[in-house]
Design brief:
7 strands, globular, transferase, transferase activity, 173 residues, alpha+beta, Acyl_CoA_acyltransferase, Acetyltransferase
Length: 173
């Protein structure tokens, strides 16, 4: 992976709505340029805690998969942060993590106004994660190969970008 420029934009800290509480996870010194959080519903003590990680695509292997913008973000529902939480504790129903994503994406766009895409890339055989992303408002856009694994790229875009036509016939000449 390319070195991280010193003037790279800082990662946003989203302010979630929808009854979600987001708490930062302490990262070890020298950890990659990402932020990890735990998320849980404030009003539902029985709801599972979900771990997520936010990266700049610029600092993530996904930067080789599509023409990214400098402020694009990648999110992962991440059981590998070192906490005793994993996605197996989340019910098979995708509603809790999907609800988190529906609150998270607008908060990321609000915290990082120059962001034009939030990307997620579950393994190609992880149908459950793909269902969660679709229920959370992400669109499936492509398949890609990363070192050691194949993924499916999902994207969420702010309404001003998502509504732009992409057909060649709709482009100004």
């Amino acid at each position: 992976m390319a070195s991280v420029p010193d003037d790279a934009p800082e990662l946003p800290v989203p302010a979630l709505g929808g009854g979600w509480a987001l708490r930062p996870v302490a990262e070890p010194p020298g950890s990659p340029r990402s932020r990890a959080f735990t998320a849980a519903r404030d009003r539902d003590g029985d709801a599972p805690t979900i771990v997520l990680r936010i990266h700049r695509v610029l600092h993530h292997p996904l930067h080789a998969c599509y023409p990214f913008g400098a402020h694009d973000l990648a999110v992962e529902l991440d059981p590998a942060v070192g906490l005793p939480v994993d996605l197996d504790s989340v019910p098979a129903d995708p509603a809790p993590p999907a609800a988190l994503l529906r609150a998270l994406v607008p908060a990321l766009f609000a915290a990082s106004p120059d962001c034009r895409r939030v990307i997620a890339a579950p393994d190609e055989d992880d149908v459950r994660a793909q269902d969660v992303l679709e229920a959370g408002g992400f669109r499936r856009i492509a398949e890609a190969d990363l070192p050691g694994r194949s993924v499916v790229l999902f994207a969420a875009e702010p309404p001003g970008i998502a509504g732009l036509p992409t057909a060649l016939d709709d482009m100004p000449h």
